[in-house]
Predict the structure.
Amino acid sequence: MKKPNSVPEEANYDGVIVVGSSREAGDRVRAWRLAGVDAKKVTPEKMPWAATEGVLFDICSFSGRERLVAKVLRSGGEIFLSGALSDSYEKAEKLLQDLTAKGYAFDHMKYHPLISKARDLISDGRIGTPRILKLECLESTDSGLDNFSLFQGLLNGVSCAETLLDSSNATKVFARLVKTGYSRFYVALLSFDTGSTCQLIAGNTSMQTKLEFSINGTKGMIAFNESKTLELPRNLDYSNAMRSTTDVEVLTRIFSDFLKGSRNGLAKISTYKLARAIQESSKSKRVSS
């Protein structure tokens, strides 16, 4: 978010402090090191009060994130964030504004291997202009952050739709919130100014995560399915599709791009606006424009 219209410059840091629990921070420390920067993890309680020149703070903890960001900014430090910033549009907007001078927020879904592959196929003209997108994106429930994981699943789905449809802007939204014994998710129909439409199912689940989509374009179609269905028995171990958004390989790609000066994966407030429109439509049971 620094100099967004200028030629990207490489970012040089002596080290990265990853703020979060051991579970949250472990992969990120390894990924930063693979990207070429030394990193260490600290809990929010042990985060240093004073910023050190040349050190970047990667705040992966959601709990108390706004307070932690404010603390770093007051000390003059620089911040790196990824994933959902908040489950509130207003808070996310404020965080993005606060980060304008000394921070960066990246959208990790733009680096998901399925989404990246599909974008390459679209860019190569293999399917032409996307017209109909069907997308399902369910995020694992965190028992302590249930509403946050519901919003994060919605935000991930919206991010995928925006990325796959590229420069399209949503014009109309009609949505419902559905609850089952295993999950909560928004079912939405989105219309875009390019004539494209998206049928979106996105939210969270207490059983198994899910990501799959299909695109019908003017020259053909593509479909990807790297998912777990909701009804699989708990004692069976399957690969986790959504886990790939935070795997070391994907994190390393995000961090490496960032250090090389790429800002293509920066989070956009439009993603949060569209997620909010889906929430508002589901509450009012009316079309949102």
Q: What stands out?
A: Residues 191 and 197 are 5 Å apart (CA to CA). The radius of gyration is 19 Å. The domain at 110-241+268-284 is CATH 3.30.360.10 (Dihydrodipicolinate Reductase; domain 2).
